[in-house]
């Protein structure tokens, strides 16, 4: 089993005794260690050097002897750091060479030496032959584990993403439907009111009013628009009393259907002294046409206000969804975690169980931090979903809190549910471990969150739990490494 080692045969070798100090080889016998000593070579790489590049043919298996290294993957055209370590004996490179041609033998990521580093390097073919010859039973187990885990993770991961996307999409659709329906209804009514206003205008402008009266009526129309835009808040009882007063005034002045006009006039801030101005402006003969024309004016203004509110709400929801998905933004950017939290909350509006209220305690003095925004939103989604699930049957309080803990930015997601049992707590970040009923959870949410926070952002995620008080704390570095 021989193969050339990149870098040439004049590279230094490694002794049997030193090989035995590496955890990967500590159980091998002297003959096996002697063989590896003859096949392997020591390579030195200066700080900043690329040891191997993602996508290149995987020709070598590397074991770290000294130094600090960083493993990076390519995501949407950017290098994303997966992990960094200085642990002697960690390995990488052609780790799947034993699978042969069944799996593309290329480097799946890039390795960079952050400091001067030394590696034991074995040719990929040598590593593959050693695995097959020395550990035949382990080979079968590893192959089964590799293909089985890959299939399971692909299937379950896709299902997890689809379920989360479906739930959030359903919630967003529900949230968008209400203002969209309100805008459609208001637009339909508005069309009829504008048509009525044109008819009334034709009646009062057919020569029965002189120029001075018509000019005064237009002034009253402008004033009605201003009143409708600035109506003070009133109690239901005050509104009812005002409607009765206006209805009586309209009846007393011979205007038919006063009870139907009064609510619109009150909603537009009209009172009886203002109606008296209409009488003074156009006279009793033209009063009903003028009042109805001005009522249509007020109603159209109110309807346009409804449409504006509905469209603003739709725009806000779309903006929140855009912030949540981060579709048009760079993967790594400087972000305000409060904006990310608020965008995630909007996505959960329709999923809030009955009896659950939300409290936010934000420290607005916190600076923006460098982060992978879309992936942090996935963390908030997982934590908030778990918190809401813990309170689904009992109700309670979902609390979002931000603050500074030493040199970390801390985001805390708390709930008042039953809590996490002590015997379960050590396992909650394990892949595929879940306490949810069969079919309701995959056990990947917290595992994914842990990898995003710890592995990708070099932060930490902690949990404190007691009945009625469970808190997940996500600690993120305030500055880039």
From TrEMBL:
Keyword Kinase attached: yes
EC number: 2.7.13.3
Keywords, alphabetical: ATP-binding, Kinase, Nucleotide-binding, Phosphoprotein, Transferase, Two-component regulatory system
The keyword Thylakoid appears for this protein: no
Reactions catalysed according to its record: ATP + protein L-histidine = ADP + protein N-phospho-L-histidine
Species this chain originates from: Polymorphospora lycopeni
GO molecular function: ATP binding
Name the record gives this protein: histidine kinase
């Amino acid at each position: 089993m021989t193969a050339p080692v990149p870098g040439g045969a004049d590279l230094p070798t490694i002794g049997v005794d030193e090989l035995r100090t590496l955890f990967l080889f500590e159980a091998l016998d002297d003959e096996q260690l002697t063989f590896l000593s003859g096949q392997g070579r020591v390579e030195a790489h200066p700080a900043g050097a690329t040891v191997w590049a993602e996508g290149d043919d995987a020709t070598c298996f590397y074991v770290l002897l000294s130094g600090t290294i960083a493993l990076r993957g390519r995501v949407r055209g950017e290098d994303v750091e997966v992990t960094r370590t200085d642990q002697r004996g960690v390995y990488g490179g052609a780790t799947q060479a034993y699978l042969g041609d069944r799996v593309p033998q290329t480097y799946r990521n890039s390795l960079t030496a952050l400091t001067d580093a030394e590696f034991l390097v074995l040719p990929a073919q040598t590593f593959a032959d050693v695995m097959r010859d020395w550990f035949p039973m382990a080979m079968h187990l590893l192959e089964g584990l590799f293909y089985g885990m890959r299939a399971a993770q692909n299937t379950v991961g896709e299902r997890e993403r689809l379920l989360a996307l479906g739930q959030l999409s359903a919630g967003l659709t529900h949230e968008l439907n209400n203002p969209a329906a309100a805008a459609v209804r208001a637009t339909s009514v508005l069309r009829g009111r504008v048509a009525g206003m044109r008819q009334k205008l034709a009646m009062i402008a057919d020569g029965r009013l002189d120029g001075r009266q018509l000019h005064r009526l237009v002034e009253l129309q402008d004033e009605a628009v201003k009143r409708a835009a600035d109506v003070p808040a009133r109690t239901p009882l005050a509104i009812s009393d005002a409607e009765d007063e206006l209805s009586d005034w309209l009846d007393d002045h011979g205007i038919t259907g006063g009870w139907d006009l009064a609510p619109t006039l009150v909603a537009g801030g009209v009172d009886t002294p203002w109606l008296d101005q209409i009488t003074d402006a156009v006279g009793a003969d033209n009063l009903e046409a003028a009042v109805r024309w001005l009522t249509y004016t007020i109603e159209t203004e109110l309807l346009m206000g409804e449409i504006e509110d509905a469209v603003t709400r739709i725009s806000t929801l779309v903006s929140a969804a855009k912030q949540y998905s981060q579709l048009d933004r760079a993967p790594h950017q400087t972000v305000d975690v409060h904006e990310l939290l608020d965008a995630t909350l909007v996505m959960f509006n329709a999923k809030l169980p009955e009896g659950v209220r939300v409290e936010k305690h934000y420290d607005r003095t916190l600076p923006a931090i460098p982060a992978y925004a879309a992936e942090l939103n996935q963390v908030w989604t997982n934590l908030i979903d778990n918190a809401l699930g813990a309170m689904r049957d009992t109700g309670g309080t979902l609390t979002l809190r931000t603050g500074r803990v030493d040199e970390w930015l801390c985001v805390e997601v708390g709930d008042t549910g039953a809590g996490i049992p002590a015997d379960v707590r050590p396992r909650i970040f394990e892949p595929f471990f879940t306490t949810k009923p069969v079919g309701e959870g995959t056990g990947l949410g917290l595992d994914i969150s842990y990898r995003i926070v710890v592995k990708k952002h070099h932060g930490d995620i902690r949990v404190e739990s007691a009945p009625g008080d469970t808190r997940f704390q996500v600690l993120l570095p305030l500055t880039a490494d």
